[in-house]
Design brief:
The structure is a single chain. With 139 residues, this protein is mainly beta. Strands 1, 3, 4, 5, 7, 8 and 9 form a 7-stranded mixed beta sheet that branches. The longest helix has 16 residues. The radius of gyration is 14 Å and the shape is globular. 29% of the residues are buried.
Length: 139
């Protein structure tokens, strides 16, 4: 099974289990059309997590963990949980990474104090909101 196909299946299963809502109109926060970004590839030797204090509306290279599903992200010094998925216009252009592993390479953008977006080639936009605590361990 290809990595992009596996990632899409994994994302779908995660969202069904976590009860996230799907936005089909491509809507995001007002004014957040976002830039077109090049696809990233996974680096075996490093995790890209963005800065401790990200600037708003600036996309940072970010690797999201996929081992337990795509539900949690640590970004900007705090934990975030997925809130919704937007099936709107693709903002990362290029082929999804063919690398297999426990992470997906993309970009995280802080849109406001309570909203961040993760985007990767071949994937829908995922909106994250601040989590109440750290994620539970997964099996």
């Amino acid at each position: 099974m290809s990595t992009s196909r596996a990632a899409v299946l994994l994302l779908g299963a995660t969202l069904l289990l976590s009860g996230c809502s799907f936005l089909s109109d491509g809507s995001t926060e007002e004014g957040d059309a976002g830039p077109t970004l090049p696809a990233r590839t996974v680096s075996k030797d490093e995790w890209r997590k963005g800065p401790g204090k990200p600037k708003r509306h600036k996309p940072y290279p970010y690797d999201i963990a996929t081992h337990c599903g795509i539900k949690w992200a640590e970004f900007g010094g705090r934990w975030w949980v997925i809130d919704s998925v937007s099936l709107g216009a693709e903002q990362v252009k290029g082929e999804p990474s063919a690398e297999t592993g426990l992470k997906l390479a993309g970009y995280m953008t802080l849109n406001g104090p309570d909203s961040a977006y993760f985007r990767a080639a071949g994937m829908p936009t995922m909106q994250f909101v601040p989590a109440d605590g750290e994620p539970p361990p997964c099996a």
